[in-house]
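Feature request disguised as a bug: please show the residue count (209) next to Signal peptidase I in the output. Example input:
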Amino acid sequence: MTTLAISATASPVTEAPTAGVFRRSLRFVGSTLGMLVLVGLLLVAGATIAVPAVIGATPLAVLTSSMEPTYPPGTLVVVQPTPAEDILVGDVVTFQLHSGKPAVVTHRVIEVAVNATGEHVFRTQGDNNPEPDPQPVREVQLKGKLLYAVPGLGWVQNALNGELRALLVPVIAGGLFLYAAITLARAAVDRRRRKRTELAAETQSREDA
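Example output, currently without the count:
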């Protein structure tokens, strides 16, 4: 009597297609959001710290409504030192209220004149103010001309001033590098996992053949 041996080969348990697609979608969304956050932080750091430092400009925050609607409160304005003779009517300038004092104002030039000593004198006015500023602005009061402005980043600029800036800048930089390292590590792990899966599938296919 002949006994037939029946060998049962266990079929590999495969992940449900829907679950696999869902996990891949979650990873993609997470990576995309993380990249957007990274890019956003880099743009903020560039606009408030890096670019002004490189070009010798000064980042400031608009705190009042005098320049609305163009530059509402919270707008970051970056001003660059500019020769007085290069400032024209229509330019937005930042100047000291009183020469040598720290308080500054950012308003638009509405008139340019030269006094008897050859010094340029500027008449300024806030876009949202009904009247010009009461006192003319002398060359010695000028801090610079507006180079660019970014709505909302003025609050960030204020938050990053002084000791807090010195504390947060290295923390943010370290966090960005850490995030980049984690992202690269995850990508490498995913690549190795895909290769193992493809190799296992090829091996199984050859065995089935």
